[in-house]
Design brief:
Blueprint lengths: L1 H7 L1 H9 L3 H5 L1 E7 L2 E4 L4 E6 L6 E2 L4 E5 L2 H25 L4 H33 L5 H28 L5 H27 L1 E3 L4 E6 L6 E2 L4 E6 L4 E8 L11 E5 L7 E13 L8 H4 L3 E8 L11 E6 L5
Antiparallel strand pairs: 1-10, 1-14, 2-9, 3-5, 3-8, 4-7, 5-6, 7-9, 10-13, 11-12, 11-14, 12-13
Helix pairs in contact: 4-7, 5-6
Length: about 325
């Protein structure tokens, strides 16, 4: 459509560029063109919902289409479960043993302390009896060994009781924290994939075209909806080489079209550095009059009368004094 519009103004451009009449000096021929937003999903899938129709107006953030996302939702559920598992592991490592486990260690410690007290008393009696020669020296050695054994057992259980009230080692806690972070990142990625399966309008505008129907397979990155925001409409017109020096970027222009209720104010945004329709001849004074340059202008205020492909006439606005 854009190529056809460009070719449609070719006879007018050449006629105006090649003549020196007053009519040609008053206006420049051109046409309206739109810069379309082609909305696509970075993921592939079957199109299940199309919320807009061709030619309808949509507001910003309005839903446009949705692809099937069962697999992505299952992946999100799995990621949520992994996050909970990692968080539970971290919480467990940050705490000491459970109260019943601590109570069991305390009970074992009390039993060991009682045994130590008994073996200490036995050692005292045995030493007295050995000294009085009622028992052989071997009995004292056995009593000393039993006392040392019970004392070591008390020390062991006392250490276990202190450990039972401590969290896990710092390295184990750091590793568990890293697992929580990895699981959370996987969950965020799964949620992003779900979000990408549904696309909304990045700006208010006209739905120029819908390229798929529900039930069709859409490849990753393939546009589903073509959207034209009002601010993306521009005017392309052609200035003869002899008058190119009189116009520059930022200059105000006036746009007229058949059926327009009023003149439309616009401003030059771009001037092509290359000539259009250049004839394959030497740049003599006679051939230079046939050269035209593409110029683009944007309306100061979007006007619904300007439709892509519409022929227009553009004149330079009078300078402000």
């Amino acid at each position: 459509m854009r190529r056809a519009s460009f070719l449609a103004v070719l006879p007018v451009v050449l006629a105006c560029a090649g003549c020196g009449s007053e009519q040609a000096s008053r206006y420049y021929p051109g046409y309206v063109e739109g810069e379309y937003l082609r909305i696509a999903s970075p993921l592939s899938g079957t199109l299940v919902r199309l919320f807009v129709e061709r030619g309808s107006e949509v507001a910003q953030n309005a839903p446009l289409f949705a692809l099937e996302d069962e697999q992505e939702r299952a992946a999100r559920s799995e990621a949520q479960a992994r996050v909970k598992q990692a968080q539970a592991t971290l919480a467990d490592l940050e705490k000491g043993r459970r109260p019943p486990e601590v109570a069991a260690v305390r009970a074992q410690l009390a039993q060991a302390q009682a045994s130590l007290a008994q073996s200490a008393a036995d050692l005292v009696r045995t030493r007295k009896l050995v000294a009085d020669r009622f028992l052989p020296p071997q009995q004292e050695d056995a009593a000393v060994a039993a006392h040392d054994r019970d004392r070591a057992r008390v020390a062991e259980l006392d250490a276990q009781l202190r450990i039972a009230n401590l969290p896990a080692r710092a390295d184990a806690i750091a590793a568990a924290g890293a697992e929580v972070k990895a699981a959370s990142d996987a969950l965020a990625q799964a949620q992003w994939r779900i979000d990408q399966k549904s696309q909304a309008a990045p700006a208010a505008g006209l739905v120029d075209d819908t390229l798929y129907r529900p039930g069709e397979w859409v490849a990753a990155g393939a546009p589903v909806v073509s959207l034209l925001p009002p601010g993306n409409v521009k005017v392309r017109f052609f200035v003869p080489e002899a008058r190119l020096a009189t116009i520059k970027a930022g200059d105000p222009v006036v746009v007229r079209c058949d059926g327009c209720a009023h003149d439309i104010a616009a401003r030059v945004r771009f001037i092509s550095p290359q000539a259009e329709y250049t004839p394959p001849v030497i740049y003599s004074r006679e051939s230079r009059a046939k050269l035209v340059y593409l110029v683009e202008a944007r309306p100061d205020v979007p006007d619904p009368a300007l439709h892509p492909g519409l022929p227009v006439e553009v004149t330079q606005a009078a300078p402000v004094r």
